[in-house]
Design brief:
Chain lengths: 252, 278
């Protein structure tokens, strides 16, 4: 059987799989795709549903003590997964959200480190999500370390990078080896393409499998309930994906 | 003791040049009307403490030349795009940035609200934020298990952040100077940590906000120096579920603020709009 789905739906499904088994997942600013993945994972989590906090949402956020609470709760181990991105990401999973071309008078200044320099240390499953997979993002060494991918022995660090998802593929991160490992290549993309667009070395098996297609029932959820839920926080995003379903469809 | 509301211009005049000024994020009561009043009185040399990040408010103040330093976890217009005036001012070294991470700003304010000199915080070690913040120190956790004096478990210490003033917008204040903020507890933290707190509100509440269930979400008047009524006081930003943002205006800002000229034109429009609606 074949089922059409969009490249966005493939990413949302991959995120939902990465979150399986989490009790509490938080989603930060400007993250409609991670937010959708977390809401889908909650939908699939069964009798003891996962808690999902979507920053900026009124309906899917249960904090009553202001912005401080998210960070306090993460330090106590009450948050299992979070998402981070980066204007630059390097092969040791260091991320740069500050800028390039000198500091502080950066030629290109990005917003800043947000909560990364803290949450990256404390949340067990940090998923790096970036919608651009090019050599200007995936660099040999970041210009500024907003948050380091790994820490020396003796540094308190229950958390760290768990996976990296891009439009081309899905990587895991090995904290001992300090390296990414390519787990799967998305349909319609190739290993060569990933090698061409990645500025650092990574591990991989001799044969890298394809990222699995979303289950048809998941696709139904993504186009219905999940899209409605994420629209509360990201109306523009939800309107965009509603107008264009599977214009850029992949085939399973 | 009653605490009559003051005009917006008096509120802006009470925040002195050179003040260390705590401000909230764009989605949490960013006081844009009061910010325009500060710009109108030609405020200068402000040290902004963004709790813990900022957007349009910092852009307006930086673009208007009112700022000497920005202490923040991030400055961005979110889905509207980058903060051009902030980035330009950094490139030209017109302002100093004290880059932080969200909970580091919270922790510094928490130290101040407790009257403590510093607060420890997990994370951070190995981030380039640390070598760029000589005011942050790293020490070994004195409570770490092991023999006394043993090396291990380094932790970052952050100095207290005690702003001269906090400034934000809230739904309600009463005539005693109590201010209702609901769940937005970071505003409470800002008020506790700052020497003086100035608030604009949508409207005045006829009773006493400390009477009844609402009190849990109220900043008591002891922390509040001045309250001014500014309806739609976060415009063009949205405010809680009370009104939506004016996306067209923020989009236009994002476009025009690419250049200082464009910014200046936009700012003039905002200032004259405020004058006419006042």
């Amino acid at each position: 059987m074949t089922e059409d789905y969009t490249s966005t739906e493939l990413l949302i499904a991959a995120i939902a799989r990465l979150l399986a088994g989490c009790r509490h997942v938080a989603v930060g600013a400007a993250s409609p795709i991670p937010g959708s993945g977390a809401l889908l994972a909650r939908e699939l989590s069964g009798a003891d549903p996962m808690r999902v906090s979507v920053l900026g949402s009124l309906k899917n956020s249960f904090f009553t003590s202001g912005g401080v609470e998210l960070f306090d709760l993460a330090a106590q181990g009450r948050m299992d997964a979070f998402f981070l991105g980066g204007g630059q990401i390097d092969g040791e999973a260091n991320i740069n959200l500050v800028g390039v071309g000198g500091y502080p008078a950066s030629k290109v200044r990005w917003p800043g480190s947000f909560g990364s320099a803290y949450l990256y240390f404390l949340v067990p499953r940090v998923i790096l999500f970036r919608e651009e997979h090019t050599r200007r993002v995936m660099v040999p060494r970041v210009d500024f370390i907003s948050a380091p991918g790994t820490s020396a022995p003796g540094i308190y660090r229950p958390g760290g990078p768990y996976a990296m998802l891009t439009p081309l593929g899905l990587f895991s991160f090995d904290r001992e080896r300090r390296r990414f490992r390519l787990q799967s290549v998305h349909p319609d993309h190739t290993l060569e393409e990933i090698l061409d667009h990645t500025g650092f070395e990574f591990d991989r098996a001799d044969t890298v499998p394809q990222t699995p297609a979303p289950d048809p029932t998941w696709i139904g959820l993504m186009r219905g309930k999940i899209r409605e839920e994420i629209a509360e926080t990201y109306p523009r995003y939800a309107a965009r994906i509603a107008i264009n379903p599977p214009a850029r469809a992949c085939r399973a | 003791m009653t605490h009559p509301a003051i005009p917006l211009s008096s509120l802006a005049a009470a925040i002195p040049d050179g003040a260390k000024l705590a401000i909230p994020p764009d989605n949490c009561g960013a006081p844009i009307a009061a910010t325009l009043a500060l710009i109108r009185r030609r405020a200068r040399d402000l040290h902004l403490v963004c709790v813990p990040q900022s957007g349009l408010q910092t852009e307006l103040l930086v673009g208007a030349g009112a700022v000497r330093a920005v202490e923040t976890a991030a400055v961005t217009l979110g889905e509207f795009g980058p903060a051009h005036r902030f980035a330009d001012a950094l490139r030209a070294a017109r302002i100093r940035v004290l880059d932080a991470t969200c909970p580091a700003i919270h922790a510094g304010l928490q130290a101040a609200e407790k009257g403590l000199p510093f607060m420890p915080l997990r994370g951070l070690i190995g981030s380039d934020l640390v070598p760029n913040r000589p005011d942050w120190k790293v020490m070994d956790n004195p409570f770490a298990p092991g023999s006394p004096g043993s090396k291990g478990d380094p932790i970052v210490l952050l100095p207290a952040i005690a702003p001269d003033c906090a400034l934000f917008h809230a739904p309600l204040a009463d005539r005693y100077g109590n201010v209702f903020i609901g769940c937005k507890r970071e505003l409470m933290l800002m008020a506790h940590a700052s020497r003086q707190t100035f608030v604009t509100v949508e409207e005045l509440f006829p009773g006493n906000l400390l009477e009844g269930e609402r009190a849990a979400g109220v900043i008591p008047a002891i922390y509040v120096t001045g309250v001014a009524v500014a309806r739609q006081g976060t415009w063009p930003l949205p405010f809680l579920d009370l009104y939506p943002g004016d996306d067209a205006t923020v989009s236009r800002y994002a476009e025009l603020s690419r250049t200082q000229d464009g910014f200046d034109r936009f700012l003039d429009e905002l200032l004259s709009r405020q004058e006419h609606s006042a």
